[in-house]
């Protein structure tokens, strides 16, 4: 099995390589796109059918024939069926069988029978070119219902009951669903928000021209949606029936025996939370190594509020065993922010506004700073080109060529781009103060010193850059923090004595991180970081190299 | 006589203006608007969101579409924009039509909405006009 797969893979890759060398436009000219590729159909009455195409057919009209699917081609059951676009639904066509068979009252379709539709399409005022094969579609006059979970995971326990037959009526807002488990036990489950979005109350007298008013979305014909009050997720339940759900003929619908009430589940392998953990051993000149934990957790929770997202966050850059005179930032932040990305212009493509609040402390919890931290990020045109985006663009170009030549092509077939880069700029502010006077203790010995409270008003411009070369990347961030007010800090000296310092003006801080990812997705990496400068709240001098393992999702 | 005619003309014009302003303020013109399917409305929103010259096809992946025009990350920021644009389009819906966390991305593997068709289906399943 293995060699066959690889041969197929090689042949596909080879084909696309040849295709990439050729011009896309000349390749497209070789194929003629079909006018309609039928994908779905709905029966609104025994005389009206709607057909969905993959293509936009809003500019096409035509004629159709209804054939018996069993006896095959021969004399059509109904001919000269007018075909028109479904108003407001660009992929749908309407077929008025009554106009093609006025003698048959109610319509020519018979319940339970299978048919073939042969449709000839052309722009209005024209005819189909001679020799053009009609589009064929197989249909069955059956009111069988398939049950599927709602596609959005946030629509928990919501299911759609889809039929090719339009429904006449549903059970009302509250309903009960009859289910059977694999042992044959029958029970009822209560459901809420039960609705038929497009009921066809009087199918016998409906006209094609009324369709768009009854169902602006043709997909709503034959759609019944409910949300289970309390689904039993441990048991795979087979829905047997829904009381009072009837098709357009007034008959109760038949649920597909293959349907199960299995809610849509997220892939179990990964969690959506955004977290970053970097564990390092640090080494400095003339000192024994220590450990450093640099981590950040910022899950996306809740809904959007007027386009803003609430994002709580916690980050820490702490360590033990200070390496001689070289120290870590010793920062722990808890907070949250509201985040919204604006799209101002084609030049400034992204403007990220994130007003937030941060409680800033250190590992000893002897600092208590509360800050308002509004931050503004600027994404200029051409400066956001990470490998991921370049890979997607490359895949999109390949897919266009592959589609034109009917070659199956997925993202797994496309080789990721090798090179990528990002450059963005921030302007931030840190406004607040140290909440109260505290006593700072030395990390070793008995020295203590009071740290008086103070006000904080900092301007924080930042530049962030990322360069990616395959699995290797360099990420650099530079802060130029300007302290507009005098801030107090207690510094610990190598002999573990303490001194009170008063800080003002510029305090720069920069981090350059080189990473080598182990996995293609870039979740695990070996990193080496160089940190240099003065970081709050202590503003002690940091000048260190750290290496370790990073886990990032 | 001429001044009387002019006065009548002014009165008629003023009355016409008042009537137009009244209609403009109270009448929604909804009956004149053609209904459009949820699918087509979603497709238009995606086209505007990605600043595409033509409508996207059903099979196109949202993250791939965004890759062409993006100036920032698809997830969460562009996905949030798309969710907001859809909520504005379907502002008369009882429920939120789509949450951005439902949109699949390399950075959000738990999302199930990958393609334009998935998005149109999700919106249709949640859209309940008031």
Number of structurally distinct domains of chain A? 3
Low-confidence stretches of chain A: 1-30, 266-273
SS elements, strand count of chain A? 34
How far from one another are the termini of chain A? 34 Å
Question: What best-fitting shape of chain B do the alpha-carbon axes yield?
Answer: elongated
Number of domains of chain B: 2
How many H/I helices of chain A?
5
Percentage of residues assigned to helices of chain A: under 10%
Radius of gyration of chain B: 22 Å
Please give the oligomerization state of what you see. Answer: heterodimer
The CATH architecture assignment of the largest domain in chain B turns out to be Orthogonal Bundle
Shape of chain A: elongated
The helix content of chain B is 55-70%
Structural category of chain A is mainly beta
Give the name of the CATH superfamily of the largest domain in chain A: monomeric porin ompg
